[in-house]
Amino acid sequence: xxxxxxxxxxxxxxxxxxxxxxxxxxxxxxxxxxxxxxxxxxxxxxxxxxxxxxxxxxxxxxxxxxxxxxxxxxxxxxxxxxxxxxxxxxxxxxxxxxxxxxxxxxxxxxxxxxxxxxxxxxxxxxxxxxxxxxxxxxxxxxxxxxxxxxxxxxxxxxxxxxxxxxxxxxxxxxxxxxxxxxxxxxxxxxxxxxxxxxxxxxxxxxxxxxxxxxxxxxxxxxxxxxxxxxxxxxxxxxxxxxxxxxxxxxxxxxxxxxxxxxxxxxxxxxxxxxxxxxxxxxxxxxxxxxxxxxxxxxxxxxxxxxxxxxxxxxxxxxxxxxxxxxxxxxxxxxxxxxxxxxxxxxxxxxxxxxxxxxx
Length: 359
Ligand code: TXA
Ligand code: MG
Fold this sequence. Notes:
The protein has 359 residues and is an alpha/beta fold. The protein is 32% helix and 18% strand. The chain has helices at 2-6, 23-34, 56-66, 93-102, 136-144, 165-172, 211-218, 230-235, 261-277, 308-325, 341-351, and strands at residues 12-15, 39-41, 48-52, 75-77, 107-112, 127-131, 149-150, 178-181, 192-195, 202-205, 222-223, 254-258, 282-286, 298-301, 329-333, 356-358. The longest helix is centred in the C-terminal third of the chain and has 18 residues, at 308-325. Residues 43, 45-46, 48, 72-75, 108, 110, 122, 125, 127-129, 131, 133, 151-153, 190-191, 193, 204, 239-243 line the site of threonylcarbamoyladenylate (TXA).
């Protein structure tokens, strides 16, 4: 009931050309944000739910629309380097090098904030997360909105991040003013987050910009132990507050089966056969190389292990599809691929509540 009552706004759903966004549409969307309203928009990583980052009321509306706890800070999106100094009190030289290498792009950096950033946006913290997205629609929207857009992923809190405008509509229709549909995103996993507020830069969330790429530019980089380890999160306060919350969770319980390929397939087939015999419907997430080896269950080929960009792009969509199909259980292979394995497994582990079976 309560959920229905919150769906009170008329949400405009507007298609935009990724390469050449219509000027009138972008002006209208920018005006909505300047007036304190909310617009969902495509970025290269996932869809974002945008509001004016410098307006505390807009940030409060973002938390309400997502059902997100208000101590979980928002990323501030900018369109050019000149926009950084007014919101970041201190930008180390190393961060400038990283910006030169990867902005605009799937990278977020954390700095001490200035007073211009309301604590409603920073989740009460004295730091601010900043990203310059690499997407013509996102950049045009930021410019049309006054230069600073606070945007978390445009999903309802706890659900997989949206990689298509339809996913945003499923979660937020009736709660926000506008959804800009720029088609499916390219990357499919949220940006890499690097914290520059301590001596050595620390990765808080892995993403498309992987450790090797960061090391090539920065030299020494640390990683938050909470990234792949459930227990680290219990004893140690995770540095990105968002990592504390249950996340990406499909409705059906998800179990990751990890080990040599042959044994993984064999074990998943065994478990799925038992479930099906009990009348349950089963979803299986498999790489292209092994997808043909599962005779029972709804098998989703998520992409080839040799092109793990494909696996990253499809992960959240596959989890949403299994929700839609109403499967009772989900089994997934592990995807410890060399390039994006850390980012993929970070999301998959959290979707599984860290339930892993070693075979
Ligand atoms: O790719 C992305 O980053 C997408 C698109 C829309 O840009 N945005 C996104 O935002 O993923 P969100 O809110 O879903 O995730 C932001 C994460 C959260 O885990 C949050 O706790 C963390 O960043 N974060 C934000 N500001 C922080 C800060 N000042 N210190 C530590 N963690 C912070
Ligand atoms: Mg999110």
